[in-house]
Amino acid sequence: MGILQIDTINVVARSPYMVLFSRMGSYRNEWLDDALADGHLAEAWAHEASFVPASEFHYHRDYRLGRAGHWAQKMAERTHADARADMDALLERIRSEGPLRAIDFERDAPASKGWWGWKPEKKWLEAWFALGKLMVLRRERFQRVYDLAERVVARWPEPPPAGVLDEASVREHFIVRSVQALGIARARWIADYYRLKPRVTDAELEPLVARGVLRRVEVDGWDDPGYVHADHGELLAQAASSTLRATRTTLLSPFDPVVWDRARAQDLFNFEYTLECYTPAAKRRFGYYALPILHRGRLVGRVDAKAQRSAGLFQVLGVWLEEDVVLTPALVEGIALALCECAAWHGTPRVAIEGASPKGLAAQLNKACRG
Prior knowledge:
Elements (H helix, E strand, L loop, with lengths): L3 E2 L9 H10 L5 H8 L3 E5 L3 E5 L3 H5 L2 H5 L2 H12 L1 H14 L22 H12 L2 E7 L2 E6 H6 L12 H16 L4 H8 L7 H9 L3 E4 L8 E4 L3 H8 L8 E3 L10 H8 L20 E6 L2 E11 L4 E9 L7 H18 L3 E4 L2 E2 L3 H10 L1
Parallel strand pairs: 11-12, 11-13
Antiparallel strand pairs: 1-3, 2-3, 4-5, 6-7, 8-9, 9-10, 10-11
Helix pairs in contact: 5-7, 6-7, 9-10, 14-15
Protein name: Winged helix-turn-helix domain-containing protein
Organism: Luteibacter pinisoli
């Protein structure tokens, strides 16, 4: 992976923490917070608001072409034009007082309707963040602590280069990193990873293939080539000889790179996925915050769960398997272990599956979770 998309919804776990759990299993959430505070990670607008390696921050900083059309950049510019004096005063306060959170700016007036109902100071902080004057120094209870960009990077173990990269170099870097992160990619999948514009074409990838940075491959059933990073040559050989095996079963965040490009998820896994938290309750098919289930390299279904931390309960409102998925003992065991592992990570050791499809799956999962 090259980035962790940030989202604040905390029904099971906030997305960046969940994405790491899906790959690593149980870990201390403070590890991610510490990595940001210690200057090994940075926050930037990438795919969307994201954690990125501090070593790659300068590419995001210098991606002017991509940022120019992004909604956050446009909104920040409008906000600055409308509230220039207030934003300048806020910036000077941080310059003189040091790092501040939005909550440190007291206000009795009601919040505005736009920008998620944020108060003006929060909008101004976010605008300066998008414009590059402020950065996130650390997070406290997931709230951003803002400081001047130059002071944040000065504290990093390795501050970013001062020189400005040209657009062509940044775009090439992001293309190569996207292919590396995706494992195998069609040209049309690449741009979404870092939200590159315009879209990437096979013709644009040809020089990278010629230089040996990427490898072009043929995939059964595809009418266009796939691309693999040269560093993945050994894995590619295993895949070609049918000796590469996926063994893990886990739950994914709706903002996991495996599924955040819905078209790619449909294309690669034949998995149609919609996050329904923004859908009226009566129209939802799979619940407020359904998590895709990855089982041994396939997306086999989804889980609607909620971590009831005060009660120590991991409540599974529903489990739905895809219609073409065959229910086997190995699948039941894999899903049950994934649920129990996620529950233990949250400190909610009791797992209760309240519903599932196909018929009989809930009883099998409850039995497996009880051990």
